[in-house]
Design brief:
about 350 residues; alpha/beta; 5-stranded mixed sheet; 13 helices; globular; binds zinc ion
């Protein structure tokens, strides 16, 4: 059994975990930076890297204390090496290399998306017996929709080393679309989770948003969200004065009304599009296991719709393992270390790195 210290700092969440190659998470702690970035309406890379520096080592101390694991009981140190914000990645990767050198352990860089794709295997003490049984029963091959602020891609996952992209967004990622819509509708940052909260009080049928690409037979399993964004901008323009008459007093405290109906309509369009493609991919591949991972997998409507699928093994990891977290990076890293892989100490980070593209 391989056990690692894992670090994730690819974007704005700092996360550290102690994880075993079985999928068992002994400790995982994260610090978000939503308050630091809120005033700017989005993530400011320079602020993100500076905050990773502040949060990282206290989180390392904390997961060691919580897991009871000592440094000499680790097989290695792993961290997200690609893709992501370059300054953010550098903080985590350099720290991982430093800890590895100081302790004489191997270190290994992980692709962030491989982490999201392998998250269905993670289990911990906080899970219910049912959740844990589901995670332990999870196996290759499976179909996975990785849907986050940076990605909307459908993958066929046959093993750790056999991952094939089946379709991807041609423009915005779904999380990015949620975030932009949140800002447009006056809910600020972070948009995705707020649109979800407001949508719960709204009527999704009042404003029928388009489902881009779904009626285009040549689009295969690709996605597009830019047309939806344009439609939203036009619609919001027609509702400007009515929206101004319903000012947001607290974006975290949704109220029913026009804004909630707009959120519900928009969310329905994004989720229907994602689920239509997932269903088509399932039919095409015949795969019996289907997972949704990444930050947008936290969306309540997406989870509800997947929950209605019957006759297949479906899985959405718990929220803490859907959004960016070090546990998923630890799982990939520990399995790769177990196979004898490691990274050269002079290897650097990469802002861009595709996965499974043909
Ligand atoms: O995977 P993640 O934490 O970071 C990236 O690698 O991008 O995903 C973050 C994205 C953000 O765009 C955020 O708005 C979205 O996931 N998100 C949601 C929800 N929670 C987070 N989108 C819709 N509904 C949610 N409940
Ligand atoms: Zn992510």
């Amino acid at each position: 059994m391989t056990r690692v210290l894992a670090i994730e700092t690819s974007c704005d969440d700092t996360s550290v975990a102690v994880v075993e190659s079985s999928g068992r998470v002994l400790a995982c702690r994260s610090a978000d930076q939503n308050r630091e970035h809120e005033a700017y309406g989005g993530i400011v890379p320079e602020i993100a890297s500076r905050n990773h520096i502040i949060h990282l080592m206290p989180l390392v101390d904390r997961v060691f204390a919580e897991s009871g694991v000592r440094f000499n009981e680790l097989s290695g140190v792993v961290a997200t090496q690609r893709p992501g914000l370059i300054g953010s990645l550098l903080v985590g990767w350099m720290t991982a290399k430093g800890l590895a050198v100081a302790s004489g352990k191997p270190c290994l860089g992980v692709h962030h998306l491989e982490g999201h794709l392998l998250a269905p295997f993670l289990f911990d003490e906080k899970m219910t017996a049912v959740e844990r049984a589901e995670a332990e029963a999870w196996d290759f091959p499976y179909l996975a929709l990785a849907v986050s602020g940076g990605h909307t891609t459908l993958y066929r996952v046959d093993s750790l080393h056999e991952i094939q992209a089946l379709g991807a967004t041609r423009d915005d990622a779904a999380g990015e679309a949620f975030d932009k819509f949140g800002k447009l509708v006056g809910l600020g940052f972070p948009g995705g989770v707020r649109v979800d909260k407001w949508a719960r009080l709204g009527d999704p049928r009042r404003f029928p948003f388009p489902r881009p690409l779904l009626s285009d037979p040549d689009s295969g399993l690709d996605f597009s969200f830019s047309g939806l964004k344009t439609a939203a901008i036009r619609l919001l323009d027609t509702q400007k004065s009515e929206l101004a008459a319903e000012p947001v007093s607290d974006a975290e405290q949704p109220v029913p009304g026009l804004r909630a109906d707009l959120c519900a309509g928009f969310q329905q369009a994004v989720v229907d599009t994602l689920m239509a493609r997932l269903q088509a991919a399932q039919k095409q591949t015949g795969l019996r296991r289907v997972a949704i991972t990444g930050g947008v997998a936290a969306n309540s409507e997406l989870r509800r719709q997947l929950g209605t699928w019957t006759g297949l093994q479906t899985r959405v990891p718990p929220l803490r393992y859907c959004t960016d977290n070090a546990a998923m990076i630890g799982l990939v890293g520990s399995r790769r270390l177990a196979l004898g892989e490691f990274s050269a100490l002079d290897s650097g980070v990469m802002a861009r790195a595709s996965l499974g593209s043909t």
